[in-house]
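Hi there,

I know you've been waiting on this one. I reran it after we fixed the sequence typo, so this is the corrected version. Both the input and the resulting structure follow.
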Amino acid sequence: MRELEYPFDGELILKKSKKIKRALLEERSDFTEKRIAVLGGSTTHDIIRILELFLLEEGIRPVFYESEYALYWQDVMFDNPELVSFAPDLIFIHTTNRNIVFPAVSDSEEQVDGLLAEQYDHFLVMWEKIAEVYRCPVIQNNFDYPFYRLLGNQEGVCPQGRICFINRLNEKFYQYAREHGNFYIHDINYLSASYGLDRWADSLYWHMYKYACCMQAIPVFSHNLAKVIKSVFGRNKKALVLDLDNTLWGGVVGDDGQENLEIGQETPMGQVYSEFQGYVKAQKDIGVMLTVNSKNEYDNALAGLNHPEGDLKPEDFVLIKANWEPKSSNTTAIAQELNILPDSLVFVDDNPAEREIVRAQTAGVAVPEIGTPEQYIRVLDHSGFFEVTSLSEDDRKRSEMYRANVERKVQQERFSDYREYLLSLDMQGIIRPFEAVYMARIAQLTNKSNQFNLTTRRFTQAQIEAFAADPGYITRYGKLTDRFGDNGVVSVVIGRKGTAADVEIYRRGETPDTADGGDVLHLELWLMSCRVLKRDMEYAMMDSVVEACRDCGIGTIMGYYYPTAKNAMVKELYQMMDFVKVEENDTGVTIWKFEIPAQYEKKNGVIRVTDKE
């Protein structure tokens, strides 16, 4: 919805929140429901009201629990029955500098250190209790600066200064976040600086309403928080689709020639474009795929990208579409060739007419209003399309992985026999039970994979770790490499050991609370990254699951398919694996059964599989 796209009008959002909510609910129906507990050290009602809008825009329909005013700590530590029964999928702790006890100027350094430890421990025991009881992701505000400086410019130098105290406390929070994979910082220290601290910390709103920031800043706050939440739940974008002329450089390469493009350090605007290219190139390091969509002759596009002053080169892009086709068609083609959905793309173009065409004709693609060249970075950065909450090695390698996929497609065209093509890839798979080194990537996959995901269940890292430690579950992750490169962790299976009677629970779309064992394996999750589709990895995963079942005396595997708008491609997967359909209801939910034969014949014949790293 345009009203919620950055840069937005916060006053308008505050005034028309009910109307915007109605429109969002009418626009779509495929929301993912999440239970979010907001535990506040100050008034949170309006934060929740506006946060709901931004989450609906991301396809997340939130159900909220809101603590009583300033009872955030008590709700957790004293097991508030209402919070316990709410069973949150995520907890957001909204505390600010208004919730800190600061040192006095007369305190000794030892007293300041003691107070710092005391303040940190206040939060630490709460986080540990949440990890023990709720086992869900936690988003914690860091601390914003106070609106005055008693010690002036020495406030950040002297240990007794409030800014110094906040910096030290924030660093302790950051260290905890680095060491705990299910804990995320909401950076209101940066946010308040970006917004303007004098406006952000207008004390009238605290004394009148117990708002920790001014009312006008709430949309900015909620928008930023929503980006963290959607990233935790795997709803980040995946690729930039970039125009060239007057977007990555000044000028039109076909008319002006490479030598006359505005890029580099010679002119102010050349510097602006250089800085933007550097920003775009850095996106690769966080796993963003870069593509080109330009109305240009291909050779001219390459000439521009090979400009000696440019940071971006042709090899930085997974795909380059430089032709005279409509940009909407090229954008659709890019999604198809990357094997991702259009709603994973962000289209960046200086031309408002092209932006409007792509927005109208390629549903789901994000099309930011990027403004003038000096605004490009700020708009993209504040939009939070690629918000980082975890950064795996697979993320860093993503561009290379997808570039290798393009090479595989070229290789495929040389073969008339598809199996011969697969054999030519010289594929090697590693399939093992979940282990610590891959927990973050496995959790990331469960929240990102939509097309090849039979049950579309989403799990946090804490839940993934619990499955791995529970003998009542069979877990498997699969990695795949071939002669073109390493695809990383690409497939995940979670099966719960139970009985035939448990089918009734799964029929309702629910899961049992515990895994009590039994002779039936219920597949609660089976997913695979779309970048390895049609490579027979699904057969290798099936073989591994069957082997695990036989090792623990399980003779029956039950599979479940819950249809969504995005996973129709796996509707018949179980049939391909020789399961027998035992039930289908009028919503398309199907239940499948596989009796493991005494002489099971492996289905994978093209991937060399090992359980050794």
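Quick highlight: The radius of gyration is 26 Å.

Best,
R. S.
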